[in-house]
Write a structure and sequence with these properties.
With 84 residues, this protein is mostly helical. It is built from three helices and no strands. The chain is elongated and about 40 Å long.
Length: 84
Amino acid sequence: MGLIILVLTGALLGWMGTIALQIEDGRSILRNIVAGVIGSLGLGLATSGGVFLGTIQASTLLYAIIGAIVLIGLYNFVRQRVLP
């Protein structure tokens, strides 16, 4: 259940990031969602101690949210630098 929550959290934050940044390109929306999922899973699994199939703690969810936001921000920063 925890894995599903981490994936959904990352996807939701990636989608919300595209709304906040006013991105209308379909590929960029999908890439933001993928970046959110990877960031959420990466930091969420690192802080949970490898236990993600059961329930997750609030601190793990908080770290997952931070990881998703940071990775989405980094992706969009690099995208704007490379593609003017």
